[in-house]
Design a protein that fits this description.
mainly alpha; 0% strand; globular
Length: 406
Amino acid sequence: MEKKITVGHLLGIIFLVALIIRIAFILTLDNSVDVWGDWWDELGWSLAQGKGFQVLNPYFSDAMPFYSWRAPGFPIFLAIIYRLFGHSFFAAKIALALLSALTAVLLYALGKEIFNKKTGILAAGIYTIYPASIFWTGYLAPETLASLLIILLTLFAVKSIKSPHILLPLFTGIVLSTLILTRSIGLLLIPVIPAFFFFHKKKKAWKPMLLFFCGLLCLMPWTVRNWIIQKSFVPVSAEGEVVLYIANNERSLGEASGFYHNENIEEFRGMSEIEIDRKFYAMAFSFITKNPKTYARLVLDRFIRFWRLYPHTISGPGTSYTGIHILISIFTETPILLLGICGLFLSKRRWRDLLFPYLILTVFSFSHILVRTTIRYRFPLMGLAILFTAYFLVAITQRSSSETTL
């Protein structure tokens, strides 16, 4: 008698296959160097050495270090790996491969929760071979971690509505705290989740809301740490305003990258990290308010950039993206996005059950589009896009089978 493969066995296979594929890709890279940069490794290694969360002043080498230059989530993740295995880029990438393989399994859990088992299994299978999810495990950037956290956050939030288990809203708050500490743009979800609870539970929403805010207290140690060091309220990091400015000035629209460093560095000499951050905000806000039509064009340009099917060849980790990257992106992103949109329309009658995924997609996409974006910022949302793609494929297949039977 043949044994049937259980869902648990299938998920184990999916996890192992996903992990093997990602490790195989990592082995094709030069893992003796960090080609990404962007301070993530520098911060992680500083923490691992016990030197604290700091980087050299990015503007003046003879000035004070910066202590809140990036969100701490990913550097803390790297620091844990470095403490265990030394300053090993290879070990850090293997850890990212494990997170990415786990994300495929979590997609099954989320797909089963909001759709059905078949959708969950198909979504997990697609994510296993999804090129972008493989690619980002090879570089020390927070995209892989953010992708896992978004799927996990959605899973806990949705289950919090369906289940009376009191720990689920608490876990939702903890995961959101972790996401915010990884990508500070997650701060925008703080009012969204209580509103989501209230929409579904009405007068009974006070308990999950209270537990959710208890989970959010995980943010407090970092915010208090910033207050002690900076003598100013900095919830996560102090580099958001430079990002806002370089994407919103008179030269931004004409650049292929969508951003331009138009600042006069000498104007910042002698300023503290917080003063520099506030000056960038003032400069960006002044430009936006004085040039609303140009800003509208920038927003439209960023909308196209965020949802484009392939990356610009001017950018890339270490070197520019090649023609192979472009082709792979076009042939994988195109069907996922198109079928994902079809899945969104096909599931519109169940909008109440799917409200939270809708909110995640809307908040994250439009917040990036309004501030600054690149195709890389879309990647953490692609797990949800794959989920709607899988739903559409399963629904169409089932309809075709029913019609054939009739």
